[in-house]
Design a protein that fits this description.
57% of the residues lie in helices and 17% in strands. It has 561 residues and is an alpha/beta fold. The longest helix is centred in the middle third of the chain and has 47 residues, at 335-381. The protein starts with a strand and ends with a helix. 29% of the residues are buried.
Length: 561
């Protein structure tokens, strides 16, 4: 559940700290007082899109922080390798330049990560969500959510993926003879060009190194010849001089053993100098080259660079491309045979798709009947006694009988009044009916929804009288299993709340400020009286408000027994 919300420099709220409790909490206030800012702030702290317009005029940043207590997000913390100690503390800072930073339990996260976490913490029902009911493309997703048919949809999706892949392969191989010949000519040209090149991984680097060596061969030859002469070839060379010194020290060691080790060291030094001279001589011989060798190196390197630029590939990629071209040419030559096999394979996959879709449709059909009964019952509780709610499932209109979602088209039909035929929601539902249908759906779906906190932003749109009272009672019923926050203008809903926050807008020194005040029993009476009669608060309206609170208490008491 949501326990704390801190808002700073968001719209007309300079600073507000709200503590939330279990049960049903309502937020009320005059139109324009800033109630929706609370919902916008909750959306922001849970990863919704924001803009610089959200920042209070004159401030360089806005901050929203929220504290949650729930185990519903354990998987998110495990997946993102973030540790938490009990509470989930989220903070989002929004700069005046529109940029934002997010932290979860002190750890920086992206907005996308925050949005994923938010899906585990809070279900926000906005003012326009009821209108989504009129979009029949959404009805299938509503039914699937109720049916809990993830396993069946996953199985169908696997078969459908294979179906698409097979169709794509058939399309690739299905071409007229002219196109086929054109592709074969192109592949043959590439294969011949790359085969004749005799490519070898690492060759270009080796040839470049050899070319650079030959470019500097004159200076290098002079240096090597001079070094070899000094070490071995000159009349007085290093090897000869060390050998002479070694002979003298050997004679000295015969007289004094102190020179034995020195004699051995000189012998070793002579061997090392001789080896160095030999290596210099051998390398010097490799520098003997003809102008033809240098020209051949340049020609080969030019070819390799040309192929690399032409195909935009290195040597390893060019060799792989050669193998791919050979494979494609082979497939092209046997395309007709492969098409026959693929067509046969497609028939089998199509049958598998149809079978998986049939299983999915059966699951949806059973769920549809249950959803009809549940929604109809909820709507009767919401003061729609004559309502009939139906889930219409029809075969999909495609050549193969299925698409990415299965084999069904789904739409919700309703008859709000006795004697009227069922019709699409978009044709007959009023604003108040849409609100109640959406509330009924939320009520039904909430039983299986792991999110334990819900926000309703003006779910009472178009509702009044007894219907408003029933909406309030339904919200109260939901709040016995989940935390519910509701922004409302209706006293019938406000009266049944467990907690009441008043949103007040004031002006000081030419600036507008919105403040949030928790109400006690007396404060609730005054606010209900205002919601009934405006500024004209009398003893009679206060007594009526107290009576309404008492009636709500009795309702909640009967439900708790």
């Amino acid at each position: 559940m949501l326990t704390e919300l801190h808002i700073e420099n968001i719209a007309v709220i300079e600073k507000a700290d709200i503590e939330f409790q279990k049960g049903l909490t309502v937020l009320t206030g005059e139109t324009g007082a800033g109630k929706s800012i609370i919902v916008d702030s909750l959306g922001a702290v849970l990863g919704a899109r924001t803009s610089r317009e959200l920042i209070r005029t004159g401030a360089d940043k806005g901050v929203v922080s929220a504290v949650f207590e729930t185990d519903a997000a354990d998987k998110w913390f495990e997946d993102n390798d973030i540790e938490r100690d009990g509470e989930i503390i989220i903070q989002r800072r929004i700069g005046a330049d529109g940029r934002s930073s997010c932290r979860v339990c002190g750890v920086p996260v992206s907005v996308a990560q925050l949005r994923e976490l938010g899906a585990y913490l809070l279900d926000i029902h906005g003012q326009n969500d009821g209108r989504q009911l009129m979009d029949e493309e959404r009805h299938l997703s509503y039914l699937d959510a109720f049916a809990e048919d993830d396993a069946e949809r996953t199985e169908f999706a696997k078969n459908y993926g294979e179906y698409l892949a097979c169709k794509k392969e058939i399309k690739r191989l299905s071409m007229d003879e002219l196109s086929k010949q054109r592709m074969a000519d192109d592949l043959n040209y590439r294969i011949e060009e790359l085969q004749n090149a005799g490519l070898r991984i690492g060759e270009e680097d080796e040839l470049s190194a050899r070319r650079d060596l030959l470019r500097n061969s004159e200076k290098l030859t002079e240096a090597l010849d001079a070094a070899y002469s000094l070490l071995y070839d000159a009349d007085e060379n290093a090897v000869g001089m060390v050998d002479s010194a070694a002979s003298l020290i050997v004679k000295a060691s015969a007289v004094s053993e102190d020179f034995t080790e020195t004699a051995e060291n000189l012998k070793n030094a002579s061997s090392l100098l001789y080896d160095a001279a030999e290596r210099i001589r051998d390398f010097r011989y490799t520098l003997d080259f003809s102008p033809e060798e240098y020209d051949a190196l340049e020609t080969r390197l030019s070819l390799l660079r040309k192929l690399r630029r032409k195909y935009n590939m290195d040597e390893a990629e060019l060799l792989k491309h050669l193998d791919d071209c050979r494979q494609k040419l082979s497939e092209l030559e046997y395309a007709d045979d492969m098409l026959i096999k693929l067509q046969k394979k497609l028939q089998g996959i199509t049958q598998s798709c149809c079978s998986a879709a049939k299983v999915l449709s059966a699951k949806r059909s059973v769920a549809a009947r249950s959803l009809e009964a549940r929604i109809s019952a909820e709507l009767r509780d919401l003061s729609m006694p004559s309502v009939r709610f139906s889930v219409e499932i029809s075969p999909i209109g495609s050549e193969v009988g299925f698409d990415a979602s299965g084999a069904d088209t789904v739409r919700f039909l309703i008859s709000a009044n006795a004697g009227e035929a069922l019709a699409p929601i978009s044709k007959i539902a009023s604003g108040g009916e849409l609100s109640r249908i959406m509330l009924a759906l939320k009520t039904v779906f909430s039983a299986n929804d792991p999110v334990d906190a819900m926000v309703f932003d003006e779910i009472d749109t178009g509702v009044s009288g007894i219907a408003a009272q029933r909406v309030g009672e339904k919200l109260s019923d939901i709040s016995r299993g989940k935390q519910v926050l509701c922004i409302t203008h209706l006293p019938q809903i406000a009266a049944i709340a467990d907690n009441h926050e008043l949103i007040v807008k004031t002006e000081r020194s030419g600036r507008t400020y919105t403040e949030v005040h928790p109400l006690d029993r007396a404060g609730r009476c005054r606010e209900l009286a205002r919601m009934h009669g405006g500024d004209n608060i009398t003893e009679l309206t206060l007594a009526s408000a107290e009576e309404q609170l008492s009636a709500a208490d009795k309702y909640k008491l009967t439900k708790s027994v």
